[in-house]
Amino acid sequence: MSEAVSALNNAYAKGAITVQEVGPQGMITLRGDLSDAAFGAAVAQVTGASVPGQRKITHAGANAVAWMSPDELLILLPYAEVGAAVSSLNAALAGTHFLAVNVSDARALFRVTGKPGPVREVIAKLAPADLSPDAFALGDIRRTRLAQVAAAFWLTQEGEANLVCFRSVARYAFDLLATSAAAGPVGFFRQG
Amino acid sequence: MSTRMATGGRLLNKGKPLRFSFNGKNFKGYEGDTLASALLANDQMLVGRSFKYHRPRGIVASGAEEPNALVGLGRDGRFEPNQRVTTTELFDGLESESQNHWPSLEFDVGVVNNYAARFLPAGFYYKTFMAPRAAWKHLFEPIVRQSAGLGKVPKDRDVDTYEHFYAFVDVLVIGGGVAGLQAAKVAATSGKKVMLIEQSAHWGGRAPVDGGEVDGKPVADWIEQTVSDLRNLPNVTLRSRCMGAGVYDHGYVLGYERLTDHAPMAAGPRHRLWRIRTGQVITATGAIERPISFAGNDIPGVMLASAVRDYLVNYGVSIGDRTVVVTNNDDAYRTAIALKQAGMIVSAILDARPTGGGALAEEARALGIRIEAGKAIAKVHGGKRVTGVSVCLHAGEGAALETIPCDAVAMSGGWSPVVHLWSHCGGKLIWDEANAMFRPDPSRPPLGADGAGYVATAGTASGAMHLADVMADAAAVAAKVAGVEADAPAVPATDEAPMMPVWLMPQGAGVKLRMKSWLDYQNDVKVSDVQLAAREGYESVEHTKRYTTLGMATDQGKLSNINGLAILSDALDQPIPMTGTTTFRPPYTPISFGAIAGAARDEIFQPLRRTPMHEWHEANGADWEPVGMWRRPFCYLRAGETTHQAVNREILQVRNSVGMLDASTLGKLIVKGPDAGKFMDLMYTNLMSTLKPGKCRYGLMCSDNGFLIDDGVVARIDEDTFLCHTTTGGADRIHAHMEEWLQTEWWDLKVYVANATEQYAQIAVVGPNARKVLEKLGGMDVSKETLPFMDWKDGTLAGMPVRVYRISFSGELSYEIAVDAGRGQELWDKIREAGAEFDIMPYGTETLHVLRAEKGFIMIGDETDGTVIPQDLGLNWAISKKKEDFIGKRAQTRSHMADPNRWKLVGLETLDGSVIPDGAYAMAEGVNANGQRNTQGRVTSTYHSPTLGKGIAMGLVLHGPDRMGEVIEFPKVDGTSVKARICDPVFYDKDGEKQNV
């Protein structure tokens, strides 16, 4: 039996900044009352991570939980574990008002790696968000746009950013990131 | 003649000569030159022809305000018109050509307009081209287009790249002169993020040319020290060659950085558009010197006094051996002194003020320069360059007292603060009587969301005219903006005599002189034009601007506006502040289209949405059709086929055996919650809450005005969960529609919606052999008994977990199979393999359309256009009468919605079997009030049906369903018409037996 393929089959563009499509990555859209203790417990049970605050992402090993809106989270976990995780959430939250949907295949995930400042600048050329180190640090996530498409991104470490967009525009997002990286640094973020 | 001097030129690197060309002539310049200084160094004083009269024009200014010296720069993929030579840094190999001349710059035929000037008055276009009407298109417009206009449009694709950058700072200082540097220095002490941008390549503005002392050292040393200090601060960003282009609401500012204009072969983007969000803006944009309106003030060699000084000090260029300085203020004396000290001749200083100047005048006099107080220029002599001036009393009418031969005229009519950026977002101005200028009114700044001002001005931009005042203002403003304490640097005070407003020289100049006194050089507007406009009743400055074209050229009147509105005020006998200014709009100077577009070109001009099978389609003959941002195959072309043949082949294959369709683009919205049923009943016209889990139902959605906005099949997944299919174009729109109602109106409903459109690849397997194909894939029972029409089931096909919907948009036995997108291509391949024995083939959107039209199924966007309600389409069966409410219900009871005369859906079959043209209207008897033929219906879908071997159509027809069998007539564009019989819209398998097998 063959495996699921990610949108661009792990395409990459190498340079001072490397842009790579990674995945497939397990993702679950979870909507509900973020302040509810039972909701938080269900999230923790499935991911090991806590419910993040506004514009934050929490991590536990390979798993992560990202804030998407006041009533929506994005859960990240290994692709193969999504089916079981959705079932667990459905069981744990049964009787409450919530929605858990597997969106692993609806998205594409990119990794941008290089020197810390230039990595921030690759994204800051495309997204109307403040990428400066004091405004956007480890543990932060931004749900915004990348040029003309919706995207969300966070740092996994200094010099390494992850970025999620819809699968249908994966090629566009990859080309944007690769073009932005190839155009060279701006020199605005002076770290690294 | 203008020439390079042996010494001087503080910005030049004489060790690095550069070659460049102008109109094919080869010249030499140095690193550090602008194209302007390099042209002048080579005695190229004539640089262009004026817009309307084709008069010879030379360089007037030394910066962004230059109106005349625009050139076409570069060639082929790097050609760009309308480039100001004063802001173009010289590089080796630069190629430039002058504009608006024919056949050559030296000999120009259009100059005949100059002698016919009396026939080209203000408002000429409006007056002349009114009638006859046809003459505009065939006579006037072609001539005007040929003779007017500046640069040429580039013909080749731009070979350079561009980008945007989003920056967030606390304090943005625009302008890197001494005021901007001081403001940034003070603001930085707060620890806030400070960004300082400067449009030119050099810091310090014009202070190094004008001289002075700051903190006990020469200002040039202070600048160097301050720039170096700022560079070392971690919270400060400095960018030269970066112009503040526009200030917008909420602290949004556009910066236009020219990265490689001075080095076109360098790697990286040519321009970068900075999209800056800042807490506060400080504009330290300096001031622009005003010309004086005297006859012949546009002859090459007449220049702003500050520009003459700039060329001398910065570039070691003299405009001529003998210069006459004409002024109404002390500053121009600096030019005379600098020229004299450089060994040039200053023939005279004509100071319009009866009492003359202050300390600078004394200094000039001590140098032996002739100073004539109360005197003026009556007219300038010369054609393509200045040969002399006639001197007169300023208070008189221009009777010449003497003629002074000279090569250059340095004029200064005072200074106007650059208030553009302050004004872009609503900063107000006040009239400063002492300096005869508009300056920012600090009590009425542009206001932010909190009601507080977010733009402040510093230095000369505030109206401070002397170095001591400039530095004090910059320190105080920056301290206030940044919330810190700061002392002003020590600057020795200067003693300058007051300036005197001079709007026309001499003040009593007669009409002959006024007709040669230029206000707007680039658009050829003279003093007499503005006066004529006033006489003809133009009182508003905005109307006068448009009537005379004053300030409407690419320089946006940087030199001409204040002089022009002063002339207008005088003609209207009202004070200048009552006339007011025209509106200052971004950008400050023109910015490139490339910078605006940024990286959005070629592949990333626009996102293209791709399904998981997109590449397969592309490799297998897809003839693409744009559907929203997607591309869908219109059909799959085989070798030698036309699209029509391909579509017919695909249709017959589906009807006779089996075909497959990539339906992944259809929207898939998940609606879940205890109130999901209630919500669905409100969103759809049908009753959805009664749908049983495992079942599907076709549903309609209307807007709150009752119009049909989307349709699709709804599947109930479980008690709390529905999956709603939408049209391809409707996925995002309907998702937003649902969220809006949930968030703004029905926030009490416990319902969540998620857009799962892209989670699945969806493949329709359609045709009499569809079941056999699925059975070959194996894994689940797809029989009629287990999976009847309008049911769905989860299961496995070819080893893949799938959800199969037994739904049909073609009238055939049909399964739509949803699989995780990551396995879409795999399933597609398996289906093709399994279907091979039935000659299975993919079909495109056109086949989809014909199949549904044969069945009389409506298509959103064909049968609907935003004005159609479900009742028009005979879909009353899908509108619940039991429900208390749904979106659109009340609207559909309005009298016009319930009108029996609304056109209604019918089928149309042509009598001759041909295809009715798309969008054709059916004629009715008589004509309407406009003399147009009456109509009684229109075609909404029309195709050739290979299944039926004839043209079929659907249309909306007056009383259509009551007129079965009647023949109506549709005119065609070729003058003939086609007759069609009104019939049932279901052309194929009326009883639905085929889809139900």
TrEMBL record, chain A:
The lineage of its organism: Bacteria, Pseudomonadati, Pseudomonadota, Alphaproteobacteria, Rhodobacterales. It comes from Thalassobius vesicularis. It comes from the Bacteria. This is Sarcosine oxidase subunit gamma.
UniProtKB/TrEMBL annotation, chain B:
InterPro entries: 2Fe-2S-bd_N, FAD/NAD-bd_sf, GcvT/YgfZ/DmdA, GcvT/YgfZ_C, GcvT_C, GCVT_N, Sarcosine_oxidase_asu, SoxA_A3. GO terms for molecular function: sarcosine oxidase activity. Residues 613-883 form the GCVT N-terminal domain. It holds the Pfam family Fer2_4. The keyword Oxidoreductase applies. Belongs to the GcvT family. This is Sarcosine oxidase subunit alpha family protein. It comes from Thalassobius vesicularis.
